[in-house]
Predict the structure.
Amino acid sequence: MTAAFRKAAFSKPALALAVVFCASGSVSAQSTAGAPAGSPPFPSTYQPLPSGPILIINATLLTGTGKRLENASLLLRDGKVAEISEGRSIKTNAELTTLDAKGKWVTPGLIDIHSHLGVYASPGLLAHEDGNEMTSPSTANVWAEHSVWPQDPGFTRALAGGVTSLQILPGSANLVGGRGVTLKNVPSVSYQGMKFPGAPHGLKMACGENPKRLYGAKGVAPATRMGNMAGYRTQWIEAQKYIDDWTTYEAAMADGKEDVVKPARDLRLETLAAALKGEILVQMHCYRADEMLTVLDMADEFGYQVAAFHHGVEAYKIADELAQAQTCGALWADWWGFKAEAYDGIQENIAIVDRAKGGCAIVHSDSAEGIQRLNQEAAKAMTRGIAAGMVITPEHAISWITSNPAKAMGILKQTGTLEVGKMADVVIWNGNPFSVYAKAEQVFIDGALLYDRHDPARQPLTDFELGQLQGVQP
Amino acid sequence: MRPSTLQCLALVGFSLLGGQLTAASLFINDATVHPITSTMLQKADIIVTDNRITSVGPNLQAPQGATIIEAQGRPVTPALFAGISALGLEEISAEIGSVDKALQTDPLQTSSLLHPEFDVTPAYNPHSTSVPVTRIEGYGWTLLNASRFSSIIGGRGRAISLDGSYASYLSEPILFIGMGEAGSVLSGQSRAAQYMLIDQAMAEAAAPMEWTPDALLTAAGRRTLISYSGSGSVVFAVERASDILQVLQLADRHQFDAIIYGGTEAWMVASQLAEAGVPVILDPLTNLPDNFDKLGARLDNAALLHQAGVSFAFSANSDSPHNARKLRQAAGIAVAYGLPFEAGLEALTINPARIFSLPAGHGSIAVNAPANLVIWTGDPLEVTSLADAVILEGRNIPMVSRQTLLRDRYLPQNPDLPRAYLKK
């Protein structure tokens, strides 16, 4: 596979999109084939908590763009990053709350691209198994957000670990699992109250053992990896036809024809069509190098982009190909061996994916435990890279848990780095976050203090945990 | 007379052994030694002769012919405990043919319900890939888990060295029993029946009788179970505070030497545990209510047990052999949440050695202790530190695993030949 081939493949999604626009004339950039016009359903009702301006001074600050600033000052105002400076203080006035971060580190809020909080909530009750719609190999019609239980205590633990945004994905039982949703990690009685404004949906897809094992055991397709591929391709062909049908219909309507039949709306194809058009970002669970390359070829065939391969335990074997495809690797620091496709895991995986020119490495959790310490997982990956002879600084490695996941989730314009004008999603750490002893001391989301380790009044407690073990104290 | 082939082999074997004996004389120069059973030593040296530590202290003389390791002030600890695990019992978790950690009996074909006589130890394979993978991260031994599957008694497992030999057992077989919510499916959907079953089984074991169709135990099972009354250790997997107290009473009734495993809510009954002298094996990462037995989950469980004077060691909740190497990070997190650093190290070294009755000296750096040592690049509990050298039974372990070989195969950029030829 040559670089030129991959590069040429890249222009395809954009081209396909342009064709659709020209032909239909009336389709807006946000609309999805077949979806009713107007604002998308289940809209975000998230409102940042009110907060006054906050000035953080004397910090060691990692911007998420690769820079490390010493004695840095950071001004948060109206929910945004208002000003950043190194070595000199920002002008203060009486209205400002000033936080002295001497000896502390400040980073962008952490972002987890792969979480099942809320859909596989704690406690792991039978009633809480809401992450895998294991009834058909393609359930592109389901949306993870409709399963999210906002009272999952895991959200609060992740917040204490500095996580400010996260993508909740369906599980990997199906070839096409459904839509993922990006949330702000704020307490709310509804997922709509957490929904990241303007974030695109993800489309969860899965390679390999899970779908073929589950459906093969039921005696239905897919039972093999070749069956997996046939399954995806059949879906994409249907989705292409769905786009064509709607395009034809809308063009006919625009021409004033009256005897045209309106295509039926189909939730499954609506999602797949949006993925083909780049409006929904494809997030694909895939472990083995050979399968990832096969999927990249399929993406070329149908003209779409894989935003990230998730888990990618063998991503290190194809780091250059992933970089050329502009596909991120959302990876663990050290998981391996739990199934055959995870047998070749190595601890340098993240660093090697990162090393490729244009490589995009992401540390993801897929775990209610791991999401609490993405910084430590990144630290382990960084340490392995350094031991293997690479130069990896904290100011670079922080991108694995901030700007890179933001990019692959389509929210980098809003968050993921500390730059003027972006959302004030900020963590103050008690020291270098790349340490087992590191703790997030204060976590700001859109400028509001949502977690303070030293102030119980700023530590959320879920409805589920309220009133449990009454009278029990250490 | 010319020596026969057999004699030649014997001679070669002897000379190799002789070479090994010489090489096994090690001198670690200028280390920060954490002896565990005594205070930390700066600028200290360690002499290893054969498989034992023969001297520890400042300004020692290297024995003639000794292999010298320059520690350059770096920390040295005993080789760490890898927790209760399926190391060497499970190659790939999802491939059932490669997993030997649990006895799965068919209730239709097996008349006896409980099989304490099952011992998982003979399934141990030192060549399982996870053994070197774990060993080169500074772990020297594990307790083989006989996980409960078909009954609340999982069976038995021994502590074993990860030095690569076939049968370097470090303890007598330890019995595993699972209580609480996770086991209720095996006890008629009520955890109360778990106590009933153990009490009945003990009555059966104590009173030799003819076999009956409704017996809980085989004859071998009766002999095994009764042998744990008054001697030997019984690990009870149990999380909820009320269950832990019930287990203390059960252990008292039957004179079991009980060890609490899991112990999410152990901090809530810390004083009772301290009074009973019952230790706890816990996962410091447990801070979520995974189920209703774990509502009291908190990151300072270890710190609270330490304050209360309860002996404890660390183990992951999962017995996954693949994640066993993560345990020192978990220990670091316990330290981040209030446990003194030294206590964190003890929970990975001397505490488990004592709890599982390993031979004297294990888990410490002292004269006459077995030479199981790790030289670290920095703080042994820190995620940015690595094991730099691992010495097990006096042997300097090659820092090679299938994973380092895969790394070395894929690290070079643009190799001339396909990577299949990079086999180093």
Remarks:
- Chain A touches chain B through 48 residues (CB under 8 Å).
- Confidence is low (pLDDT under 50) at residues 1-30 of chain A.
